């Protein structure tokens, strides 16, 4: 396997983890780091901290990871595309749809791998759920409901909870059921005194007819990362904080208590918590980035998919302002 020379732009809260994982993955070599703010977490090792993306490109890199605030994604990505560098940008793809589309176009026109770090696709619980759904173990999928809530992260200043967190749930929902959102209706709240929303609830339906519900906030003292996928044979419950996947099967034994049966619709069946290897999602994502560059098919989130997720987020925010259900276009 050839070794790819990788540069990292940004070594803040997320960038420090990228630095660690890049050094652990076979076939990629961290050769340069750039961050105008220096190295607050001490991850550079023997590498010089370069001042900007231009210096990073000058280091002679094959691929780059962009882990700077969202508003800086476009400028960095366009320079990397112009230099012929395959690039993974952290989610969301960009601060605006126009910026995101310019990024999509630049990497497509250059024939480069452009990807977005929607890391939940690589969570072991969701990877297991996706494989089991594809194998028919859940039957037809009826509904996906997610809950992603917890305390406010002080480091996030340039976007609200919809772009920072709800984008995870939109991407993972569309990926799990293999169908894009067709219609969304949302409500938001502004409780922490910031200009951006800190709570959003999104309801809607995918193009395949799956009902979706995403509950997301920065206002809860309880951290929760839960995805419930309900289908004709039962329900998968994926806890992405622990990587656990549990299957609640529809019962096959008839209930003699008629009133309970008529209320529930299905009876309670066996409950199974699956056992499987739980690999770090960020490491799996980097392996997928490497393999995609080398020409393999992976679950890596393309910039086109990242742009679609941003579009759904923007339509949800617009819906919250207007009180009207909207269809993402494009």
Automatic annotation (TrEMBL):
Q: Which Gene3D superfamilies match?
A: Dihydrodipicolinate Reductase, domain 2, NAD(P)-binding Rossmann-like Domain
Pfam families on file: GFO_IDH_MocA (PF01408), GFO_IDH_MocA_C3 (PF22725)
Q: Report keywords, A-Z.
A: NAD
- GO MF, one example: nucleotide binding
Q: Which domain of life is it from?
A: Bacteria
Q: Which residues form the signal peptide?
A: none
Q: Which SUPFAM superfamilies match?
A: Glyceraldehyde-3-phosphate dehydrogenase-like, C-terminal domain, NAD(P)-binding Rossmann-fold domains
Limits of the GFO/IDH/MocA-like oxidoreductase domain: 127-236
Domain Gfo/Idh/MocA-like oxidoreductase N-terminal span(s) in chain numbering: 4-118
Q: What name is this protein filed under?
A: Gfo/Idh/MocA family oxidoreductase
